[in-house]
Amino acid sequence: MEWYERLADYFPEHEMKDPRQLYDLIEDKDTYHKEETDEYIVMYAEFPTFIFIDYLLVNPATRGKGVGTKLLNRFKEKGKTIIVEVEPIDHEDEDTKKREAFYRKNGFVKADRIQYRRKDEDGKPYEMNIFYWSPEDLPQNVIMEKMAKACEEIHNFRSKKYYGRKLADPDEVLKFIKH
Q1: Is there a contact between 79 and 135 (Cβ–Cβ < 8 Å)?
Q2: What pLDDT is attached to residue 95?
């Protein structure tokens, strides 16, 4: 699974799913898809009303040439809300700034009313930001409902088998912040 190695080389370890879980998602979950070319790898779930992008990796040799934007535009043409998880900016890590800038440049908005905290294998908490693009104006509580579905159906798919626990119990990892 060369594609898994490529993803694991790029994404932080705590964000990577067990390769067997990813294989099960691809093989057994009708909503989950993997596309791989020389230019990119994208793994995503397509639901009736939204798309959850689990992993998006543009080949370093083709970054900055519009590959990622073309891919996102292809998803946007489906007319569904698109949700991604993005690491918070770490001023020590230039890639975190580039990732957030990439999504913002492509019309994604940070769901600033959704707190998303998960735990790694050792039980250490980490935070992720939810970014979304939508063809219609959606309130963030609706985005949170969609993210809860992604947690339940994608992150938690056979997670007890591979991790002995739910990876992202929506009731524990998602919190709506009222202004």
Answers
A1: yes
A2: 87
Quick: pLDDT tens for 124-170.
999 999 999 999 999 999 999 999 999 999 999 999 999 999 999 99
Contact 83, 52 (CB under 8 A): yes
- Residue ranges of the chain whose pLDDT lies below 50: none
| Residue 145 structural domain | 2-176
User: At which residue do the structure tokens 């993210």 appear?
Assistant: 147
Domain CATH code at residue 21: 3.40.630.30
Euclidean distance between CA atoms 102 and 84, whole angstroms: 12
Q: What sign results for the dihedral spanned by CA atoms 10, 156, 82, 148?
A: negative
- What is the pLDDT at residue 179? 76
Residue 1's pLDDT is what?
Answer: 73
- pTM listed for this prediction: 0.97
